[in-house]
Amino acid sequence: MPTIANYAVGSLGTGGYATLPGLVLTYFLTDNLGVAALAAGLIVTAAKVWDVVIDPLIGAASDRQFARTGSRRGFMLIGAFTLPLFFALTFAVPPAWGPVAGAVCVLLAFLGTATSFSLFQVPYVALPAELTRSYDERTRLLGWRVVVLTAAILLFGAGGPMLRRATGDQVSGYLLMGIVAGVVIGIGMLIATRTADAAASASLTPARLHSADESAGNPRDLVRTMQSRGLRDQYLTGFRALRRSLPFRALLGTFLLQALATGTMLAGAQYVATWVLRDEAAVELLFIALVAPALLATPGWTAIAHRIGKERAFLGATILYLVAAASITAAVWTPGTWIYASVALAGIAYAGLQSLPMAMLPDVISHDEHTTGPGQAGTFTGIWTAGETVGFALGATVVALMLAATGYLSSIAGENTVQPEAAVTAIVLSFSILPAALMAVSLIPLARYRLRRSDFQSAPVAPA
C-alpha cells in the first residue's frame, strides 16, 4: 500500500502541470501580456514540440540508467527539483515589458518547465510495468493514481485562478500562482521518486530475472548494448517499438486523439467562463463540475474494467464523453448555467479516459516483453509521453487558431474589450463539437486494440 500511495501522489505533479498551463497560459499571454492569439498558440505549441523531441531521448536514457543502476530515480529527482523554479518564472513576466519581450521570456521559461517535467514524467509512466505483472493489479494501481490526478485537476484548475485573484492585481496574482503551484507540483513529484526503488526491487524477482536471461542474455550485455547506441539509434528504437507493437499503435493513436479533444476543452475553459458565462471566476465552477463527478467515478470505472475488461470500459467512457461534449454545442444559441450539467457528465467519462488507457499501457509493455525481452519500458513511455504532449499542445493551438480566424481581440491586464460574435461562437465550438468529433475519430484506432485479459497470466507480484 505505501508504494501505491507514493506512486499516486506523483499525479499531484503531473495533474498540476497538465492542467494549469493548459488552462491559463494562453489566456495569460492574450489577456494579460497583450500577445496576439496566434502568437500565443505558437508559443505553447513550441514548448510542446520541444517535449516531443526530447521525450524519446529521455525514455532511452532512462532505460540505460535502469539497466545500469536498477533504478529510474535519477532523472525523476532532477525534474522534481528544477520544475518549481521554471514554472514560477513562466508566470513572472510583467505586462510592462511589452508583448514581444514578454512572449520570448514566457517561451524560454516554459521550455525549461517542459524539460523538467519530461525528466520526471517519462520514467514515472514506465514504473507500473515494473511494479507488478498482474493485469488487474495494474488497474488498481493506476486507478488510485487517477483519483489523485483528478483531485489535482480540481486543486489546480479551481485553486490556480483563485490564487491569481488573491492579491487583487493580475501581475502579482499570476506570480503568486506560479510560485505556489510550482512548489506543490515539485513536492508531489519528489514523493513519487521513492516508488522507483520499489520498481527496481520488483524487477529483480526471480521470475523477471529468469525472463531477462532467456530473452536478453546477460544483463551486463544489455547495459553495454544500450550505452553504445547513438542519438539516431535511440530515436529509431522508439519507432521500432511503435512499428512492431500493434496494441501500442492502437492505444497511442486513441490516446493522442483524446488528448487533443480534452486539450481543446481545457484551453477553451477560461474563454468559456469569461465570454460565454460572462464571469471570469466561473472557470472554477467548470472545474468543480468536471472533477467532483470524476473523483466519485474513478472507482466505478475500475470495477467495470475488472468485470468486462479495460478495453470495453474504455470504449464506454469514450462514447459517454462524446455525448457530453456534443451537448454543449447548444450554448451557441442558448448559453447558460446548464453547461455545468454537461461538463459533469463529461467528468464521469473523463475519469475512465484517464485511468483505463494508463492501466492498459503496462499491459502493452508486458506483452512486448514476452516477444522482445524486458528493459524497454522507458522507450515505450518516451513515445507515449511525446504523443500525449502533441495532443495537448495541438489542443491549445487549435483554440488559438480558431480565435485568430474569428477576430478575437487580445488585451493587456485591466483593459475592457468586447469580442466579436464570431469569436464567441468559436469559443463554444472549441469546447463542444470539436472535442466530440475527435472522440468519434478515436474510436477507429481503439477498435484495433486486441489485448484481452486472457493474454496475460496474473502474477503474485504486487505493490506493497
How would you describe this protein?
The protein is mainly α. The chain has a single domain, classed as Up-down Bundle (Growth Hormone, Chain: A). Helix content is 81%, strand content 0%. It contains 17 helices and no strands. It has helices spanning 2-31, 37-69, 73-90, 99-131, 135-166, 170-192, 195-203, 206-216, 219-227, 231-244, 246-276, 282-308, 310-327, 339-372, 377-405, 421-430, 433-446. Helix 2 runs parallel beside helix 4 (99-131), helix 5 runs antiparallel to helix 6 (170-192) and helix 13 runs antiparallel to helix 17. It is globular.
CATH class: Mainly Alpha
When the domains are counted, the total is 1
Largest pleated sheet: none
Q: Please tell me how large the radius of gyration is.
A: 21 Å
- How many individual helices? 17
Q: From N to C, what is the helix and strand string? A: HHHHHHHHHHHHHHHHH
Number of E-state strands: 0
- Average pLDDT works out at 81
- β content, as a range? under 5%
Shape: globular
Using the coordinates shown, work out and report the CATH topology.
Answer: Growth Hormone, Chain: A
